[in-house]
């Protein structure tokens, strides 16, 4: 097993990066790789070259091919991200737009329809939310986020759904509650990954 942790937050002192470090430590001595999209200056902009590659199902830009190689090494992908406007940050969305493309993550044509291609991968989500779980439940935010990512991206590409573990109230003035939330989420994801390794 090889786990790729992908994080999208421009602040290296953020809770996102703290969680990333905790998760990496919890998965030791397993094989773990970190993709810090902000630190690596990944360009999330979908360019004309990306558009051509999408339609052709190949001839991808070099930076996209590098991400493909990382994902091909991985058995598990964990997306660690702050929730912005009830969704993922633009940097992470741009990474998915450019990397999870036709010809690699799936194949689609009018003649043959959809053929998912990421069956080797299990995808886990660790969203870091500023609001409390009650607000997410009342307004349907958690359901909407899960539908968008779990169904709209993970299922579409044929990846297996892994564990989704929210950290709520990340911006509240209760460090104890934040610590408990981080502990729960890291334990949930690491236990899911260790169970796969044992199985």
From TrEMBL:
InterPro entries for this protein: Flavodoxin_fold (IPR003680), Flavoprotein-like_sf (IPR029039), NAD(P)H_dehydrogenase_qn (IPR051545)
Name of a matching Pfam family: Flavodoxin_2
Residue span, Flavodoxin-like fold domain: 1-186
Keywords carried by this UniProt record: Oxidoreductase
Signal peptide: none
PANTHER family attached to this UniProt entry: NAD P H OXIDOREDUCTASE-RELATED, NAD(P)H DEHYDROGENASE [QUINONE] 1 ISOFORM 1
Family to which the UniProt record says this protein belongs: Belongs to the NAD(P)H dehydrogenase (quinone) family.
Protein name, UniProt field: NAD(P)H dehydrogenase
Organism: Streptomyces variabilis
Lineage: Bacteria, Bacillati, Actinomycetota, Actinomycetes, Kitasatosporales
